[in-house]
Design brief:
homodimer; alpha/beta; Rossmann fold; DNA polymerase, domain 1; 2 domains; 6 strands
């Protein structure tokens, strides 16, 4: 590929699925709650449906049916439904709040901290997630993610793939769009970033959806500027 | 003092003068330009008047006379005036851009990196400056400032001491106002934060204004929750 990495000054990252393994982390937390109350259930389904509350909530905003809201709020709405449906009745309010913040305690993929640390030595690195800022800050503390800056769709009261999220991130960083590379494991995110001039970097996360019906993308199409098997490979391809 | 530090979850910091020594850094950069062109002038006055472009620009916004704008823009407007007035005629456009970003290359006070690193081990630490986000991110890279999050008045399209800057920072962090401590070397900033419920931490920066007419505050009044001589002392007072 002929992409010139020297034009890139900052890398911004999708987070859920790209930098952290949300699914195994959520299954672990909710399974522990089930075990505490002696409930046997399909906790993988619980995790996938909890995640669905977030994606459904964002779609309702895009469709003009709801106001913008934090991921925390969307997570809590769906959690309350699922707790009831799965028959979890013993949690106090504080315990439910804590469980909702399981999304603040997602484990990084095993290469993320090393890869990001290497990339940080040459580039500004930041989040560009639909997750809210408080969630992303707490997750970085939990997982040791070495961000220079935490940017979120919350900064723009919208969600990716709205162009204003990508362009807004470049503007806040004082950079031209092509000087910012969007990195994600999801090509729809990268295509939307590329459509408004950002550079793009794909990382493969074949295990994001576990063994369920939904399959992860394992390859990027030729329109993507840089593609890597993990963030250590990615750092090498970015010259660090 | 009876302030209970255990209520604090995040510390947000004023930056210019509080964490970095803007005045000596700016004098160094502009003196080097003067030397290059063989110009002798009062570079301390240049630095103070350049800083004044920023404070004047913010006041014009507060007075309703101008739209909100980035610190970079205010710096550039005043720089163009001063370059002309001081007879600096040989700078290219790129060199003037680079000089304007001298505000992205301000040296931390000698205790800042160690003190912030200690505080980061227990608290979320972030900026809460009137400087724009790109400036603050570049400054952190330059000086090794280990922020968890870069928050700016730019997030709220206003400037401190507007209450919405302090309350907005707490809201973005998902915290109650008293769980966030504003830290600054300037008590007017702390009083404005306290007025809307934030905790407050003063650090003395007696050399901020050099030997000029303007004197730095060296002590906080009794209304301030924590007061320290530098950020190492501050970390100790915050239990880390």
């Amino acid at each position: 590929m002929s992409f010139d990495v020297s034009q890139v000054k900052a890398l911004v990252f999708d987070v859920f699925g790209t930098v952290v393994d949300w699914r195994k982390s959520i299954i672990r937390e909710i399974s522990a709650v089930g075990e505490r109350f002696g409930i046997e259930a399909d906790w993988e389904q619980f995790a996938d449906r909890w995640r669905g509350g977030y994606t459904d909530g964002m779609q309702s905003f895009r469709d003009g049916k709801r106001e913008w809201m934090k991921a925390d709020t969307m997570h809590r709405e769906r959690l309350d439904i699922l707790i009831n449906e799965f028959g979890i009745t013993g949690l106090s309010g504080d315990e439910t709040d804590h469980l909702n913040r399981a999304w603040h305690r997602l484990d990084p993929w095993s290469d993320s901290v090393e890869g990001l640390t290497r990339l940080k030595s040459k580039y500004v690195i930041g989040t560009l997630s639909n997750g809210n800022i408080g969630l992303l800050v707490n997750m970085a503390k939990y997982g040791g993610l070495p961000w220079d800056v935490v940017l979120s769709a919350e900064n723009f009261q919208s969600y990716k793939p709205d162009p204003k999220v990508y362009l807004g991130a470049a503007e806040l960083l004082g950079l031209k769009p092509h000087e910012v590379m969007m990195s994600a494991a999801h090509t729809h995110d990268l295509h939307a970033a590329a459509a408004v001039g950002l550079s793009t970097g794909f990382v493969a996360r074949p295990d994001e959806y576990g063994s369920g019906a939904r399959k992860a993308e394992t390859e990027a199409d030729d329109s993507i500027d840089v593609a890597a098997s993990d963030y250590i490979d990615f750092a090498e391809k970015m010259g660090v």
